[in-house]
Queue: 2 jobs
Job 1
Amino acid sequence: MSLNSKLLDQFISVTEKAAYGASFYIGKNDKILADKGAVDNMRSEINKIDIDGTIVIGEGEMDEAPMLYVGEKVGTKKGPSVDIAVDPLEGTKFVAKGLPNSFSMLAISNSGCMFSAPDTYMDKIAIGNDLPKNLLDLDNSVEKNIDLLAKAKNKRPDQIVACILDRPRHKKIISSLKNLNVKIKFITDGDVSAALAVVDKKSPIDIYLGIGGGPEGVLAAAGLSCLGGQMQTRLFLDEETEIKAENHGIKDIKKKYNIDELIKGDVMFVATAITDGDITPGIQNKAKSFIASTYALHKDSKTEKKVSNHHNK
Ligand code: VTB
């Protein structure tokens, strides 16, 4: 069943207000306050919408997050049953330090159609559209995946651009990429927008890979699903987080999830920039108003749009 397209504009208003809430803390070196600014506004805005919503990706489990926790019911309960993944502030460090590419984002699917990833690490691989289905696999070597991708894109491996979080845990992947002469774009944080860059014609990135946050993986999958991109993921767990995943209800903790298992059927993805982003400008504060710019996607209506809205303060 398709989601009602009217929901897209209503959810744009949610991330606009959340981004505005976080914008007071740009460059204030306080990640916690910035996150709170976004969460408070996001929750009160979602609760105005006529939906019977359940948070499936949120700020944490009920005992650790007072608001927007996994399982929390949101909306007026008068509308359709939907699952919601929220990341009120993707890139807390970027806001705290006044750096680009922080967003308030969320995704919506029909009820029961979104993978509720626990707040653990996730191994991810994402590539763009117009490529053979299930081309790459997390169990392939980096060499094999790059070779398959290069052949499918009619390029040489040294013409491929890979994006990865700059973390010590990626030492082995990075060394394989270097041996193949693949160009590497390192990011410090913010792997949702990095994963989405694989479908952006203006971005040079051909592949996003490596281990990042599980919740961020599902948000990226939502966006990629709207744009025809591909993604495969698997939870990346240690002894402690294995228990966390099991308590979260995951039966097979080693399962590889392809994009259509992360997100089933119709989906919407909405991201409002807080600081200036590659996709849209950040919140522009005027004396009596603010302008918020949002990137919004709806799979079934094939909507991809950038909107800037003016709001009175
Ligand atoms: C990524 C990135 C996030 O966490 O998922 C990353 O997208 C993974 O965690 O913006 P580590 O920082 O522990 O590597 C963030 O950087 C913050 O949530």
Job 2
Amino acid sequence: TAHQAAAQPEPVTLPLTRAAGCPFDPPAELAELREQQPLRPMRYPDGHVGWLATGHAVTRAIAADPRFSSRYELLRLPLPGGPSGPLPPAQIGDLTGIDAPEHTRYRRLLAGKFTVRRMRLLTERVEQITADHLDAMERQGPVVDLVQAFAHPVPALMICELLGVPQSDRAGFQEHAAMLSSPDAGLEAQMAALTALTECVGELVPAKRAHPTDDLLSDLTTSELTDEELAGIGGFLLAAGLDTTANMLGLGTFALLSHPEQAAALRADPGLADQAVEELLRYLSIAHTGIRAALEDVELDGQLIKAGDTVTVSVSAANRDPLKFPDPDTLDLQRKATGHLAFGHGAHQCLGQQLARVEMRVAFPALFRRFPTLRLAVPPEDVPLRDAMNIHGVYQLPVTWDKE
Ligand code: HEM
């Protein structure tokens, strides 16, 4: 019947090309697929036929369902032309690639350390670090690369604050961190930078054990975690919290500069910041794709997902679902974007989201108030976009302003 035919569409491959003419919109095909069927078969590079979720409700249901595993060794990357077959297992301390009960144990230990008090201390630090970098920008420009001058160093220093990296180690730390996100560094150089950073954290652990300071890493040394686990977790926090926040600041600024009326609203009313940040998270969905594997047969949306099937969720498509967010392709800072999935959902929902929010709520209004005439220094189509898998964003954002 027509109904059955509709329930078994031809497997597609994952659309990757961004919508023409807009650096913020997900691939146009994703909207078509979501309209046809929010959960549908998809072909993976190794020939496996798994699934693609594009609707908000079904994406949320998958993320909340423990019958879907996050274990890397069960997952295939959906990237056409990319590596095929299951991935290597998670390294020690990498929470995103493991399931309960191992995951629950780490998660509990860590969640207890991201306290209200710690977030308050970090808010004071981000205000200072933001102001320092805006001062430096003012001295250096006009015409600066906002990524290099602001969007990358602020979150990098905030991770140093979180982990308690001593001032004397920060220059080296920042250098490796910059390499981690550099467009010119190949995958190998980036992996080497991550290893170097994890080693830096590893070297800190014994010092924190011997002489605890007021930071998350010192807090964690009082738990049952081994030195190896602590170094792994520290390196992972860095990897999870740096590129993400840096690209939200970079791409978010680009989006605000491209919607001057929205930027003006934020400049006029810094009280709009909290809600503006949620809307930017939704609209940009920089962590655009998630992957899971079914541990058993699961019936969902009238379809049968078989045990072992890989399921890709398109967070960017889900966050533009008109059934959840009316007029979803419009950036509207007045909107209540609650319920967006930009930080994920369920057991693996972002552990650093309060820190990320604090950084963005301080940084965006401060930037736009300090430079009321801030604008792009190049045509928008010349801004180099990160179009790789993982995290969407900008490699550079040349900006200028009128000097008083
Ligand atoms: C997990 C996004 C900032 C630490 C996640 C996940 C997403 C995400 C989508 C879920 C991954 C999954 O389900 O597999 C973001 C975005 C950020 C951000 C968009 C910035 C705007 C941060 C920061 C930190 C952090 C600043 C810490 C310093 C983590 C950790 C996890 C995680 C530890 C793993 C949680 C788990 O698997 O239990 N993040 N993140 N993130 N994030 Fe974030």
